[in-house]
């Protein structure tokens, strides 16, 4: 992949580049973003961003280029781009990839129709859902049925590509302009990973019967730089994801350092390819389309918002919580359960649900007790039970959880900020937490445990780490002190990473002011 290209005007070089890319791509990955709305509204959400990842042959056909285009539907006149997108959606020479893309298509069609682009979009063909690819990548076992539960895109990326994608920005405000760099990164990778998952499937199709890992050896020379390098830099990995090195990591190569930048397009980049290369599918891809290709068709009923017709339940004698989700829990009212007036010991304690799990680590870094749910996919009742049992304030970005604030009196707060640093400052200010430099890095970021009070010598640390953790040899002659978590036994030392982290939170929490 070359880079991200933000398309916001039909007169821009990026628009010309998009036009030529669609003309010469045999595969494109599709995704869309919109501002979340409350359920049961009479209109569909307005799509703010359409992501298209293209796969282009290089000039000598020995390499592949994969630019990602972010089409800013809030800025560009939709009529100027309508026919281009519609033609790509129905072109028999372009395989379209998506993840549960039918809903995206419904919202896209509604958005374009609202701007005079009739009849919108009613068909995408040929189409291949990533879920279908994932199911076909699973080893076939006699008598075993595939699970009917649809896995998330993040789970599929983890299992197929060996990477972990954060969905922290999924519910951010995509209608706000300008888009943040983090939003553009998130949106681009969601579309780009679809193409890499297809590459794994192509490799499996080439050598059916062999392992996917060995099959990828046939493809690496033709792939351009992939997803790995964006996760290698601490700055990018903190913003959007974590990297996990699994067996499938060999299938993904490195994105160039300038991937996350929107760059100007030079005249050379929009030079047309030879006509015989336009939208040309290779043999393997054409066979995949023939065997697995599908299509999305929208009916008239799909184009109409479904309004809930459920009747209100009869009263059972109990008083129902009739407040809206934004009432009562939107602004903190206190006091928290650790307050002395509530019988607490004065030590702040939080429970961060899966939508703000990154905030939990930031709170631990500044010495605050911050737990996470027991399970990876907790139900609302599980979160409520854990918060009550451990006397914690539940932090969330899920407005639906605020419906239960009558069960969690003064124990639930909806975080408004999107980014972890901003979320940390918001929580500190809202709950009037006292943070000092002595508290920084005083809790285990891995499990939330406390450290053994007495530091360990290098010899003691080596003994404690046997069979559990590797201590780099370069630390042996530095006369460092080591600290061990009392719960998970993780070892820490005051190296460069520690000092950088301390300085980061000194700045974020403005401890020098």
UniProtKB/TrEMBL annotation:
Taxonomy, superkingdom: Eukaryota
Keyword Nuclease: yes
Keyword Transcription: no
Residues covered by the 3'-5' exonuclease domain: 4-206
Gene Ontology process terms (BP): nucleobase-containing compound metabolic process
This protein's UniProt keywords: Exonuclease, Hydrolase, Nuclease
Stored SUPFAM superfamilies: Ribonuclease H-like (SSF53098)
Pfam (any one): Mut7-C
Molecular-function annotations in GO: 3'-5' exonuclease activity; nucleic acid binding
Region (Disordered): 303-339
Entry protein name: 3-5 exonuclease
